[in-house]
From TrEMBL:
The keyword Transferase applies. InterPro entries: CoA-transferase_III_domain, CoA-Trfase_fam_III, CoA-Trfase_III_dom3_sf, CoA-Trfase_III_dom_1_sf. Gene3D superfamilies: Crotonobetainyl-coa:carnitine coa-transferase, domain 1 (3.40.50.10540), formyl-coa transferase, domain 3 (3.30.1540.10). PANTHER family: SUCCINATE--HYDROXYMETHYLGLUTARATE COA-TRANSFERASE. The keyword Ion transport does not apply. This is CoA transferase.
């Protein structure tokens, strides 16, 4: 468990500052991971071009507003927000002062956008020679498709994830969310930044990180790539069915409205335990089903009959009984179930932080605990421009009258 006596100064990235030009999903989540680890992340925003995640549902109390998006809040906790009009003549000078005091600058724009701001890698390196420069566009900075626009759903499509997710014979279904934005891309980008910081600590050299977001997503598809390159077979959607020898393997209905349990049988001993846990229905005692080959050959029939058996039970009770018997099984949870999950409660996963506009709001804690470091998320997501004056005074060295003049002139907007 985390050491609750540890201070913010004990955080792994305490003392690291990030100038954050990222927006929407993967980029914002990358810099959130850095903020959770103790970095001072200053998010560069603009009232003229608002991060579209601020305009994404769900909204607190169903009321729309740039400071009321739960999606934005989840991806931007722990950061400070500085509004800056990058088209203003003073903008480059102001952000250059911030970069000079930063260790990392991050963006997830299409290649060329940062250059038009006057903030390409070479220009930034002249400001801070040992800067870690993270650029995480869809297809990377080079190649015939470098200028293509992309979001999580298009990345899932072009990398093959959507081809593999769904039911056999049906249209590609995808994962129901922009999966590349939530796991492969931010995690790989944060890892690259940490590696670059370690390299700089050893050598004194900065780093330019050119990350194509499609490539970490492709890395998820190792089995499918192997199946094609080794066996010449193009894998097709399999629904809930296992692509290996596991059978039965899927989601089965339980008592109640739209309640389900996921069960995976990986060997003969687990099958025998399942038969006992379900009171040994006659059909399950067929000797042919006692071996994996027999179960694989009868997958469809087993799924149909097993569904009739699981309907007799409530999902949590059945899952507990199967787990006790050594069978991988868990209820298919709704969002409400996850929030009320006793295991997550025990580990302190859910945090309530007092947002300036939304009030007490639920946030995810870091999905790990460090014994000698404080819990990661220390403050809620910022209001649009909430820290503009603070950053201008603290880091840019501006007096209050200078800040007021820049606000009046439209530079800090």
């Amino acid at each position: 468990m985390a050491n609750t006596a540890a201070s913010a100064a004990d955080a792994p990235l305490a003392g690291i500052r990030v100038t954050d030009f990222t927006w929407i999903g993967a980029g914002s989540y990358t810099t959130k991971l850095l903020a959770d680890a103790g970095a001072d992340v200053v998010k560069i925003e603009s009232t003229g071009r608002i991060d579209s995640l601020r305009l994404a549902a769900p909204y607190k109390d169903g009321v729309k507003g740039v400071n009321r998006s739960g999606y934005f809040a989840d991806r931007n906790s722990g950061k400070r927000s500085l509004t800056l009009n990058m088209k203003h003549p003073r903008a480059l000078e102001l952000v250059s002062r911030l970069i000079a005091q930063s260790d990392v600058i991050a963006n997830n724009f299409t290649p060329g956008v940062m250059d038009r701001f006057g903030l390409g890698y070479e220009a930034v390196r002249r400001i801070r020679p040992d800067i870690i420069y993270l650029a995480m566009s869809m297809q990377g900075a080079t190649g015939p498709e470098k200028g293509y626009l992309g979001y999580g759903s298009t990345m899932a499509a072009v990398t093959g994830i959507q081809h593999l997710t769904g039911l056999p014979g049906r249209e590609p279904a995808g994962t129901g969310t922009n999966y590349p934005d939530h796991l492969p891309n931010p995690c790989h980008a944060a890892f690259a930044v940490l590696s670059a910081l370690r390299h700089r600590r050893r050598t004194g050299q900065g780093q330019y990180i050119d990350m194509a977001q499609t490539e970490p997503t492709v890395a998820l598809l190792g089995p499918a790539v192997m199946e094609y390159t080794v066996n010449g077979h193009d894998p097709q959607p399999a629904g809930n069915a296992s692509r290996d020898e596991a059978a039965p393997y899927g989601a089965y209905p339980c008592q109640g409205q739209d309640r389900w349990i996921a069960i995976g049988i990986h060997d003969d001993a687990q099958w025998a335990a399942l038969v006992r846990a379900l009171d040994a229905p006659a059909w399950m005692n067929d000797p042919a089903l006692g071996e994996a080959a027999g179960r694989r050959a009868r997958r469809a029939c087993i799924d149909e009959r097993l569904a009739a058996e699981t309907r007799r039970f409530e999902a949590p009770a059945l899952a507990a009984a199967l787990q006790a018997a050594g069978i991988p099984a868990m209820p298919v949870s709704t969002a409400a179930d996850v929030i009320a999950d006793p295991q997550l409660a025990h580990r302190g996963h859910w945090l309530t932080l007092d947002h300036p506009e939304m009030g007490p709001s639920l946030y995810n804690a870091q999905p790990f605990r460090m014994r000698h470091a404080p819990p990661g998320v220390r403050r809620p997501a910022p209001l649009l421009g909430q820290h503009t004056r603070e950053v201008c005074r603290e880091l840019l060295g501006l007096a209050d009258d200078e800040i007021a003049a820049l606000e009046a002139d439209g530079a800090l907007s």
